[in-house]
Structure formats: C-alpha cells, structure tokens
Amino acid sequence: MFDDNNKYFKYQDLRWSGILKSIAKSPDILQPLFEGFTNSIESIRLRSARGDSFEPYIRINLSYNATLSGEMDVLSSISIIDNGVGFDSKNFKRLTIFKDDTKGFNNRGSGRIQLIHAFQYVTYDSAYMENGSMYHRAFALSKADSFLSRNTILYEEEQPVLLSAPDTEQRTILKMCIPVEKDNKAWENVSVQDIKKALIDHYILLLCNIKSELPQIEIKCYLADQELDKADITKEDIPDPTTTDTYISVPKYKISNDMKRLEEIEEDPIIIQILPYKICADRLSSSEIKITSKGELSNSTKIKVTCIDPQAAIDNCRYLFLLRSQYFDDIEGDERGNIEILDKTELKKRAKNVGYIEEQIVLNDIQDQVNAKASEIYTEILLKKEEFQGNLERLRKEYLLSEEALEEVSLSDSIDDIFKKAYSYDAKIMAQQSAAYEQGVQGLNALNPASEDYQTQLSNLVDQVVESVPIQNRTTLSKYVVRRKMVVELMDKIINQITNAQNEAARNEDEKLLHNLIFKQHSNNPLTSDLWLINEEYMYFRGCSEQKLSQVKLEGNKIFKDEFDEEEERYLNSLGSKRLSMRADVLLFPSEGKCVIIEFKNPDVNVSDYLNQISKYAYYLANYTKDEYKLHTFYGYLVGESIENQDVWAADGEFRTAPKLDYLYRQPKTIRNKTGEIEIGSLYMEVIKYSVIKQRAEVRNQAFVDTLFHPIEGEQLEEDATSEET
Predict the structure, then answer these.
(1) Nearest residue to 36 (alpha-carbon basis) of 78, 77, 5
(2) Which residue has the higher pLDDT, 126 or 202?
(3) Which of 31, 341, 427, 455 is the most exposed place for a label (fewest CB within 10 A)?
(4) Is 402 exposed, middle or buried (0-12, 13-18, 19+ CB in 10 A)?
(5) 695-702: long-range contacts (C-beta < 8 A, 24 or more apart)?
(6) Smallest Cα–Cα separation from 172: which of 75, 44, 50?
(7) What burial class does residue 233 get, using C-beta atoms within 10 Å of its C-beta: 0-12 exposed, 13-18 middle, 19+ buried?
C-alpha cells in the first residue's frame, strides 16, 4: 500500500509537518464525520444546481472488527457514500491547495486535516461526470511517515479514467480507516442513534432549510459484513416553522448626489419571508437569524438577535429565523450561497470609495424588523424583553445611571456588561469635559483685560468651564449615593433576618452583624464606618468600636488613669466585676470634654433591660479618666428593635416620646463624682429602633438624590413658566 513513489503528490511552497502542528486535532471524535457529511451535502447541492435528475442519498457505514468469539472489537472504518457531483477536476484541484477560499468563506482546507488527525489513512473513490463523460479517480490522504517524509498528505492511487459504461452510477465513497489508538475506546460507546442525534444537532439550521429537498440519509453499523443496527434521518426528525405567512417589507436606498447620505426609495420595497422555528436548546446553541439564498444558508451576512439574549433559553428552547426573498436569490454569491448585505455605514463608505453604488437594501432594516416580528410571533420573547427592560430601568434608577449611557446595552449583556458600558460612557464624557475644562483654564492666558471684548471672552470661558463640571460631579456623587443606598438595604435585610449569614449561623448574630455594619468591631477609624446612619457628623469624630475601657486611646494615649488608689481599685473590681474591662460598643469624642456612647442590642432583646448600661459607661468615663481627658458632656444611644415604651417608662419615667418621631429621649441627667456629692457631668440619652434609623437614612439619602439630580420645585416652576411664555 502506498508503495509507488510516483503517485505521491508533490506540493510546492508548503511544509506539511508545520501545517499539521498548527492545526490541532478536534477533541470531538465525531468531527471527521461532520467534515465528511458537510462535503456530501455540498456535493449533492452542486449536482442539483447543475440540473441533474436524481434521488440524492448519503449513507454512513460504521464497520467494526470481530473478535475470535464473534464479539464486537475496535472500529475498523467509517464510510460516507453520496451520489453528489463527485471529485471532478475542479474539486480535486482544491486538495492540492491549502487555505483555498474559492469554495466559500468558511472553507480553508482544514477539514481534511481533521480526517488524517483522527484516522491513519483516508481513501476516496469517486465516479463523476465531466464534459459529458463519466470518469473515475481514487486517492488517499494520510500523515503517516511515508507521506510526511515526502512533504505530502496526498497519494493519487488512480488518475482520472474514462468509464466506458455510460450507466455507471455517479457517486463518491469516503472511507476513514483505522482510528488513532486513543480514540478506540470512545468509539466503542457510539451507537447509530448517537450519530443520528449528533448530526441533527450539528446541522439543525441546514436541515431546517433543506427539509423539502432532504436527501435520503441512513446510518448503519456493521460487525464484519453483518448489519447490526440502522437509523435514518427523515423529514419527521426536523422541526417545522411555527408559521409560514410572516413577511416584512424593507426599502432600498441610494446614495445622495453629494455622497454624504443615504436616501430611501419609497417605491418597490423588498418583501422578505420569515420562517420562524422554536427548537430544543440542546440542538440549537444560540438563537439565530439567517439569510438564505438559492436554498443555501448565507453565513457571511451576520444579523444580530437583539430581541432576546441569543445564548438564553426560554422553556428549554431557542429560536431560528430563516429569511427568504427573490431579492436574495438574485444576488450573485459564492458556491456556498454566501451573499453580501451591507449596513448603512458600510454602504456609505463603499459608495464614497467607489464613487457610485447600486440601489440596495440595508442590514439595519432587516435586523430591526425581524427582531420586532420575533416578539410578535413568540409572546415569551416579548415577556423576556419586557423583563429585561424593567430590570434595566431598575438599575438605572438605583445606581443613578444616565439614559444615554445605557443606549448601547443589549439583551445579551450581563449585569457586569451593563455597568461597564454605563461607566465607560461616563468616563468618555468626563474625558471630554475635563479636556474642555483644561482648555478653558489655559485660555485664561490668552485673555487681555485691556481688549474691548474682554468681558465677553471671559464670560465664554467661564461658561465652558462650568459646563465641564456636572458630569464629573454626577459620577462621583452617584457612586456615593448608591453605596449608601446599598448599606441601607443591607441593614433592612439584617433587621428582617433574610441574609445568608443569618440563615447559616448556628446562633443569633443579628447584633454583631448590625454592629459591624455601622462601625466595624475593634476598629478605631470612624471615617471607614457607616455611622452616618445614626448621625452624619459622627463619621468625622475620633473614636473606637468594641474596645476595653482601659484600652481606649485618644491621639495614641490611653484616656483612663494608669494607677488607682486603694478605694478606686476596690470599686473597679468589686462584686466580681472588672469594670474597666467592659467594652462599650462605640465611643466617639467630638471635642474636648464630650463623648458619644452607642450601644447595640440584638433585635430580639427587650431594650428596657439595658437602660443603665450607658449610664454606667458615662460614670466610669467621667470619674476615672486622666485629668487631661476629663469628660463631662455625654450623649447616649441605646439601639435595638424590641422596644416597648411602657417598659422604658417603667424603668425610667423621665424618658419621653419625641414629637412626630418614633424614638424615646431623656433630657440630660446628672453624673456625680465618686462620693456622690458633686455633679461632674450630664448624660443625654435616646432609645431608638434600628428600623427607625434605617428609615431616617432612606429619607436623607433620597433627599440628597432629589437635590442633586432633579430640579427643585421652584426651578421647575420657573422653567415651566418660561416655556409657556415662549
């Protein structure tokens, strides 16, 4: 076999060892089968286009060796037989060229390489018609050493021979022999039903398009010469279109005389038929819109699916839209039916380069109308589109995104994509505005106060600079507002016990979560906290969270005394308590002599049981700190969710309800010295719910948004009045 040196085809200017290394073997063992099937389909189509009268077929035979006991052994070969046009001179010549593009946009000769990557050798036996006569030729492909040592993959077993019998059947046999060893195991588990399903899934677009002219397709499995199993692909295996009476009408365009714009031609619009298919998601990897020309799919013209995320499945289905029109059939394309439809931008560009262009339709109109019709045909697509638009509008409002920034967002965009597009738009505008700002500033150098139009020039520069500021402010402030909104939302989730942390926790940690949300435990930097939830000013005070009293510092120094007299020591450690080892949840120091004390309680705990806790902290801070840190004015906040006003009054009758606000407060109460004889300070105190804090924060945040991003009522009224006058 392959022992005649003269039959090896001699390639020029090609190094096959390098080519084979550059094109990897497909991980799909069925890929060689797909390559052969594609060639058979094309061959049948070419013969039909030639006008031959015949009954097309494709036969796939899998042959397995038998063991001595008659059991199935390894795969021996796969044969694909078709009665298409065959390997005439034109088709054979393509085998002698690598990266040939005459066959179509997607055919560059790599298919044959997949065959020889997967099988030790591949043979072709073809009877074909050429110039009115029947010929026969045979050849083989391989990457065996005997081939590559001669820098070839082609062996011509038989040169074209004129057949004397005029009734010889026109057909081609592709035989892939002896799979590479590592594929043997995988082929053991492949049935004819597996191949049938794989072919339908892989060629679903093509099969839908050629259903009416479907060739006879049969798949057989042989053990030695005995048929074991068989499967056919028939019209019943291919879906029908949902409807056949859906059409769109698109106009033609011509270029204007000045070559600057496209002009729509009102008369004689082009009618296009839409054949919509609803196909199981495991057969169709993405929803697609395909133009067909002369019965073939045009893969060179890309039409975007914008009515739905192309990758998404609805009820485990995706969608195919085949477009047919006499207009498409009349366009001259390549051998695979690929035609060219330009979008408006490319049409204008092409016209300017050439100086003229024929009247034609544009891709934009087709895309827009087909996607609109898709939503009419399938209500689920419309509902999905409306759901996406609703979510997009929610994101726009919640994150204060501009409408202009979202114009390029599509249904296939993820949340990450949406934000990237929105912020990229803002960044682009900010760059332009910053450049304008800088130009305005630099323009000051050119101003001459002595010139007559100095004031006008200055005014124009000021306007230029001012106009550059808003977008920058908006972007920065939007992030600021959105972050605060998210903090409020998280607080709400914790209060209502719906966070994952709460659901997964073995014990109730609501207090800890709320504490860390507002001011992280063991932190000493209020600037990184969210104390604004309680009071906007508190973020800018010095302070700490969850620290022992004895360890509390200001400006790096401990505020409590280093040494205590005997009586002080006795008290601080009496009754089994180590009072200076207690931890206040939050201590803040606004200014000299003042201190804010905040205590957080679990939402399930009755807050009234802890009314004295803040008073004790205030007492210790007033009596046992160093002289240079003497504190005398205290503000206390006891925060919880389970608050019964009567329980609070029962514990301390001096508490009152705040007018129009849902919290309790107590006027400053005296703090005495260690002997109880002298008043040394006072403590104002509030008892308030987490939910009230949350509501206050929401109101403040919304007011901030309204002030920054919406005209105030007076301005709006003024604008309206101006509009009416106009």
Answers:
(1) 78
(2) 126
(3) 455
(4) middle
(5) 696/533, 697/484, 697/487, 697/488, 697/491, 697/532, 697/533, 698/488, 700/536, 701/481, 701/484, 701/485, 701/488
(6) 44
(7) buried
Highest mean pLDDT among 276-285, 391-400, 469-478, 712-721: 276-285
User: For residue 617, what are the β-bridge partners?
Assistant: none
Strands (E), 199-245: 216-223, 226-233
Those residues with Cβ within 8 angstroms of residue 599's Cβ, 6 or more apart along the chain or in another chain: 584, 585, 586, 610, 613, 614, 636, 637, 638, 639
Q: 532-588 pLDDT, tens per residue?
A: 999 989 988 999 999 999 999 998 899 999 999 999 999 999 999 999 999 999 999
- Residue 35 near residue 111, CB atoms below 8 Å: yes
187 neighbors 29 (Cβ within 8 angstroms)? yes
Q: What is the mean pLDDT of residues 654-682?
A: 92
Residue found by looking up tokens 């009755």 in the block: 606
User: How many Cβ atoms sit within 10 Å of the Cβ of residue 726?
Assistant: 5
Is the model's pLDDT at 709 over the cut of 70? no
Q: What's the CA gap between 138 and 141, in Å, rounded?
A: 11
**Which residues, listed in sequence order, are joined to residue 62 by a DSSP beta bridge?**
78, 221
User: How much is the pTM?
Assistant: 0.59
CB 322 within 8 A of CB 277: yes
Q: 408: which 2 tokens?
A: 């390029």
Does residue 104 sit in helix, strand or coil? Answer: coil
Distances (CA, A) of 275 to 270, 465, 676: 16, 56, 93
| Torsion sign, CA atoms 193, 195, 198, 200 | negative
Task: List Cα–Cα distances, 69 to 66, 73, 405, 651, 666, in angstroms.
Answer: 8, 10, 72, 96, 99
At 36-79, the pLDDT tens digits run 999 999 999 999 989 999 999 999 999 999 888 878 889 999 99
Residue type, 387: E
